[in-house]
Design brief:
- It is built from one helix and no strands.
- It is mainly alpha-helical.
- This is SUMO.
Length: about 50
């Protein structure tokens, strides 16, 4: 099998696993299609230049 075919197969497998994980998480949270999760990351500290 060529490297390109193997890379494509691996990418497709990765996408499939991610989709399955998202479905499992969605079911765990009892989410329905169209539901959204809003999140905000608060930063503390840091500096300005």
């Amino acid at each position: 099998m060529s490297k390109t075919k193997r890379d494509r197969r691996d990418a497709n497998e990765s996408k499939r696993k991610k989709k399955e994980a998202n479905e499992i998480q969605k079911n765990k949270l009892e989410m329905e299609d169209g539901d959204e999760i809003d999140a905000m990351l608060h930063q503390t500290g840091g500096s300005t230049v």
